[in-house]
Fold this sequence. Notes:
Elements: E1 35-36, H1 38-48, H2 57-67, E2 69-71, H3 92-108, E3 113-118, E4 121-125, H4 127-135, H5 143-153, H6 158-170, E5 173-174, H7 175-182, H8 187-202, E6 206-212, E7 218-223, H9 224-227, H10 229-235, H11 240-254, E8 257-259, H12 271-283, E9 287-292, E10 295-300, H13 303-307
Parallel strand pairs: 1-9
Antiparallel strand pairs: 2-4, 3-4, 5-7, 6-7, 8-10, 9-10
Amino acid sequence: xxxxxxxxxxxxxxxxxxxxxxxxxxxxxxxxxxxxxxxxxxxxxxxxxxxxxxxxxxxxxxxxxxxxxxxxxxxxxxxxxxxxxxxxxxxxxxxxxxxxxxxxxxxxxxxxxxxxxxxxxxxxxxxxxxxxxxxxxxxxxxxxxxxxxxxxxxxxxxxxxxxxxxxxxxxxxxxxxxxxxxxxxxxxxxxxxxxxxxxxxxxxxxxxxxxxxxxxxxxxxxxxxxxxxxxxxxxxxxxxxxxxxxxxxxxxxxxxxxxxxxxxxxxxxxxxxxxxxxxxxxxxxxxxxxxxxxxxxxxxxxxxxxxx
Length: 308
């Protein structure tokens, strides 16, 4: 991450999402908006992560550190570059053989964070960028305070609160142990536990810190502040609007255009932060309206002209 931002903000209330894609001449029939295709976005993505460019775990980590945050596996949409297609292997099966243990080792060694923080998909985040994601959770690092806040905003399950307390008292704990200690072993309770863990993982209250063995490998979880204490220290000092602008700017460097419909699915943070960040970047001339496959969208300024 680099430097402070001098983007001007007016202090006005956040605009509705749809208005962020319009100005006096956009989103109107007969407009002269730049036309962008998915093929252009995919080509830009291949420049960042070329096919067959990642052959080792070290190269995987280097790509994460270089880009800031990337999806781990094959992207289902065009929202973010993914490491999986960049792996250098002979077959698709070999890609899984590489990425599946790499993700566990990278997370356990803290070379990068691994969680569903972009588009609800497994994402690697470099330590340098992780504090920005944490800043936008609203967490303080105090477990009880954060549970109260998230119980109100996310309607945390009671089971999720029990998971946090159990991990706090017992240290890093595997999913199997949580099932044995906090559920009756029934399918509905196991499903409820999975949902609770997902809520806590997405909210950065707990974090994957390893795996436990056996025929079926399961995740081991720790409290996020205990596993990434420096991230909490840094993240709680970063203003949320600054964190949102930095992350949104980096997102448009990684994926140069997005449709209006895709925007709300990007991040877990408060939608107001997302809208304000886009408004500030548009005001600064860093983003401009476009049409992506005929749909209203935003693109990185200059991208459409370069790709014509």
